[in-house]
Design a protein that fits this description.
heterodimer, A: 317 residues, MetI-like fold, globular, B: 291 residues, transmembrane helix (chain B), transport (chain B), protein transport (chain B), OppC_N (chain B), transmembrane (chain B)
Chain lengths: 317, 291
């Protein structure tokens, strides 16, 4: 097992290098370069731009800038923001809890709901419920999430006045759990829509795959009751593709969170990203790209390890 | 799948009969055909000039006046005409982005799969790396720095979404290149490029066609989202995404301005998704979501 983990960790190294190269390259190949906000501003003089370049080390050759930046990433120095000069890592980290809360609550809803719908669909294959569920999932996957969010605001916040339309707390109620939960409902619903659909589709096909195998027939023949068959025999075998899905879905989860956060003004990383985009805050943008990519790499690593833990065939091959 | 006793059929006959059984796919195909036609003939169909302002005619409700069948927006522009012209823009971006995606993905997939070895490893690590970034992040970063034109938006969407296609094509090529017809082509002295593009690629057409259809749906979705955020199609050119941006400000009083473009986006995305799903079932039963 330790050998397996070590191998997987080693495989993550080229990914990290690749990710940092792309993240760095994107910013420097962009027209106007990382200082676009200054160079395109007519009130800023040429000598000021030169000075700013020296301050941020942008006058040095590209490969030196890259090495400096990349070693900084792995030693915790992610650079400083253009506006306010705060450490980029701090700026990102203070937004992480809000995003993780949103992603966690949406993912929990999606897994519980998607898994139940998927399993039920697999057990009662081609029933009215199954047909409705699979068609519904395809519908859900086709909804533009941001429009769904706007419509949710219109119905639940403007017309019915049941729920707040955005933000994380009511003014003056920071720390009030009830207020937080009320604000969490709509963004969670919007983010969970697409993930639930994906989960129901994947769990349905994962269970269908398992349910017609020999060991399931054996279990039935020796008189294991249906509930126990599903839980003890089918579930562990169907879990593998679902754990893998958890890792693979992470980038989509981040994309979805960004959409939900911009619609609902949720003060997480997605909101930070869009704000940084409009101010062309390239150190923050570069940091965010790196942060999400590293998060995704770690997530996939953990999923791989979890799969190897439940299935010895994987770690021995 | 039911084993109905059917008379012997040609390959295309079998595919068509499988596709026809898929009622949602038929509906999807119908919607797609309708949308393509309305985009193509937008200049003839649109009752008004989509950019014609008349502040005296602001916020006309839908179905009230046959000059403005779907009402007018905050500047008195005809909503139906803007939807039609916006559809032209959105579908153009969707199709060009899809072509970019498929060409890039197919080229990388076929190169990796056919040449193999070090080239394969390198290309597939590149794919893995690109997949670590959430697509919306990648898209927005590039879109924010590149001056937005229809072509640049399409290219950006296409170049940030080809990775799955390259994996699908590579897997297909790995499968195909061991088969006899490739050995035969080689024995006849066919060059490597000929084998790649004349022998292997046409045989991988089915999964590519399915992926292409689904990619149009996601490209339309992406375009509408970045246009909604202001980094995509720029006003006065109408797109369904930027129509939503404007509508958002008048949400509580004139909701139909936000509902109509959203319905248009949803219909388009659904049409292509259902069509793609049906094509997958019809062309390649092995790829079904339903094993």
């Amino acid at each position: 097992m330790i050998g397996f983990i070590a191998k997987r960790l080693l495989q993550a190294v080229p990914l990290l290098i690749g990710v940092s190269l792309i993240g760095f390259g994107l910013m420097h190949l962009a027209p106007g370069g990382p200082l676009a906000i200054y160079t395109l501003n007519p009130t800023i003089q040429v000598q000021d731009i030169e000075r700013i370049k020296v301050i941020f080390g942008l006058d040095q050759p590209l490969h030196i800038q890259y090495v400096k930046w990349a070693t900084g990433i792995f030693s915790g120095n992610w650079g400083y923001t253009f506006f306010g000069g705060r450490p980029v890592l701090d700026v990102i980290l203070e937004r992480v809890p809000a995003t993780l809360l949103l992603m966690g609550s949406a993912l929990s809803v999606a897994i519980v709901l998607g898994l139940s719908v998927g399993v039920l669909g697999a057990v009662k294959r081609y029933s009215v419920f199954d047909v409705l569920a699979t068609t519904g999932a395809l519908f859900a996957l086709s909804f533009p999430t941001f429009w769904f969010g706007l419509m949710a605001i219109f119905v639940f916040a403007i017309e019915l006045r049941w729920l707040p339309s955005g933000g994380m707390w009511e003014l003056g109620e920071e720390g009030n759990l009830l207020s937080l939960l009320r604000h969490l409902v709509l963004p969670t619903m919007v983010l969970a829509l697409v993930i639930t659909a994906t989960w129901s589709r994947y769990s349905r096909s994962a269970f269908l795959e398992v349910m017609h195998q020999d060991f399931m027939r054996t279990a039935r023949a020796k008189g294991v009751p249906p509930g126990a068959r599903l839980l003890r025999h089918a579930f562990p075998n169907a879990a593998k593709p679902l754990i893998a899905l958890l890792g693979v879905e992470l980038p989509f989860l981040f994309s979805g969170a960004l959409v939900a956060e911009t619609i609902f003004g949720w003060p997480g990383m997605g909101r930070l990203f869009v704000d940084a985009l409009s101010m062309k805050e390239y150190p923050v943008l570069m940091g965010m790209m790196m942060f999400t990519a590293i998060f995704v790499i770690i997530g996939n690593l953990l999923a791989d390890i979890a799969i190897a833990l439940i299935d010895p065939r994987v770690r021995l091959s | 799948m039911s084993a109905a006793a059917a008379p012997p059929q040609s390959q295309s006959g079998r595919i068509w009969s499988r596709f026809r059984r898929h009622r949602l796919a038929l509906a999807g195909g119908f919607v797609v055909a309708l949308l393509l036609a309305s985009a193509l003939f937008a200049p003839l169909l649109a009752p008004q000039d989509p950019t014609l302002l008349d502040t005296a005619l602001r916020f006309r409700p839908p179905f009230a006046d046959w000059h403005f069948p779907l009402g007018t927006d905050e500047l008195g522009r005809d909503t139906l005409s803007r939807l039609l012209w916006g559809g032209r823009v959105s579908l153009t971006v969707g199709l060009v982005a899809m072509i970019t995606t498929v060409m890039t993905g197919a080229l990388i997939g076929i190169t990796a799969g056919f040449i193999g070895g070090f080239v394969d490893t390198l290309l597939m690590r590149f794919v893995d790396t690109m997949l670590c970034f959430p697509q919306v992040f990648l898209l927005l970063v590039v879109a924010a720095f590149v001056p937005p034109t229809l072509l640049s938006i399409s290219l950006i969407i296409g170049l940030t979404s080809w990775m799955e296609v390259s994996r699908i094509v590579r897997a297909e090529i790995l499968n195909l290149k061991e088969q006899d017809f490739v050995a035969a082509a080689r024995a006849l002295g066919a060059s490597r490029t000929r084998i790649m593009f004349r022998e292997l690629l046409p045989n991988a057409a089915a999964p590519i066609l399915v992926a292409a259809t689904l990619k149009v749906a996601s490209a339309v979705l992406m375009e509408s989202y970045i246009s909604y955020l202001g980094y995509g199609v720029q006003p006065p050119l109408a797109s369904w995404g930027n129509m939503l941006t404007n509508a958002q400000g008048y949400f509580d009083t004139v909701p139909w301005l936000a509902i109509l473009p959203g319905v248009a986006i949803t219909l388009t995305v659904m049409g292509f998704n259902f069509l793609g799903d049906g094509l997958r079932d019809a062309l390649d039963p092995r790829l079904r979501m339903d094993p």
